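ok so I'm stuck.
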Amino acid sequence: MEPTSTATARAPRRVGALLHNMALQDWVLIFFHALLLARSLGAADGPDASMARRMAFTLLTVSMCTAAVVRGEILPPGRLRALIYRVGMFMPVLASYFEMRWLLPALHPVLLDAKLLAIDELLFGVTPSVWLVQFNTLHVIEWFSFFYYSYFTILTLVVLPSLFFDRGRRQIEALVGAMCVACLGHIGYSLVPGVGPYAAMIFQEPIQGGFWWSQVQYAVFGAGSMMDIFPSLHTAYPTFFALHAFGNRDRAPFKYVWPVLAFFAANIIVATMLLRWHYGIDVVFGLMLAFTARRVSVWVASREQDRSVTDDRQPVWEPLWLRNEQA
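replied:
not stuck anymore, here's the structure
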């Protein structure tokens, strides 16, 4: 058994290593989860609040423990430590979307649909969902429902390869940007709650969809929080991914896929309004969020991509499969 004095002496070194190695994204993510926990603790008691608190506490604990184990150098360098960091620090950010399903109702928000609609009418004359009613035909709805549903596939196909197989500055940009969209977007949900045109407005006829429209409804009503409209993350994520791909178009695979991502993003944006999920202002702020995330990701990557080369801190993302060399 390790002598008590030795273990005690190591504790300050662990804390020092933790503070020394912490990346900017680590502090931001811990603050994000702490903020959501604080929001849930401030909500009135009830089943939704209870579930939101459990999820918020769990996600915060996982992130803090991951930072302690990895940045505090409790685990030695290697594939296991790199894998634990990826799973324990990044995945809770994505999981926070499901936390919204309980947190948003627990906050008993005053819905702001009327104000969002008024902004649309001021900016566009009419909210886009009303103007797009003229395209409510089976083939058009199915086309855009397919693209709306493809959002989940795009998220998976961009995020997971970036998380587990990419490296260097390009990896930092992709993941920091995705985290920026998630954190700011989920905070936006709680500050500007609404249900969207489909529930807040009266349309003369229902959407004329088929298979893909039914899949969209199943996904939204099965996993969505139903008050997650501002900003539109269906706009922000695909747009950010297209911007990221365009910014890295000098290298494979993005030199080939950036036009495809841009095409999908454009169709998804239209789908969010045609299918009556979002107001125009939701999309505007989704676009602003995407461009902000891109700027932030480039700035962070420029500061932290070489930190393990210029000093003795851990790389932001330690290599999992590839050697730690600049991409």
